[in-house]
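A student in our group prepared the protein record below, which I am reviewing. I have pasted the whole thing underneath without changing anything:
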Amino acid sequence: MKIFTQLALIFSVCFLGKLISGVLPFAFPVSVMGMLLMLILLLFRVIKPKQMKETAEFLLGNMAFFFIPAGVGIIAHFDRLEGKIPALLLVVVLTTLITFAVTAYTIMLTAKLQNRGKQAIK
C-alpha cells in the first residue's frame, strides 16, 4: 500500500506540473515542470526523500521498460527517418557528448562545494 501512496504522490506532482504548464503563456515541457515541482517540494522538505525511496528505487530499477514505447515508435515510423539517419546520428552523438560534459562539470562542482563545506566545518 505504501508504494501506491508514493505513486499517487508522484502522479499528483506530475498532474500539477501539467496544470501549471498549461496556464503558462509559453510552451514549457510538462515533465520538466513536474521535476521542478518535485525538486522544490524536496528542497523545502514538504516531501522527504525517505517517503519516496521504495517507489524511486522500483522506477529506477525498471527504467528500461519506459523506453520500449519510444523504440516501438521509431520502428513503426522508420520510413519517415530514412533520409535523415546521418543527421539523427550526429544529433545523438553531439547531445551525448554535451550530456557527458555537463555531467562531469556538475560532479566536479558538487565535489568542490562538498570539500568547501568540510573545510568550513573544521
In short: The CA atoms of residues 71 and 77 lie 10 Å apart.
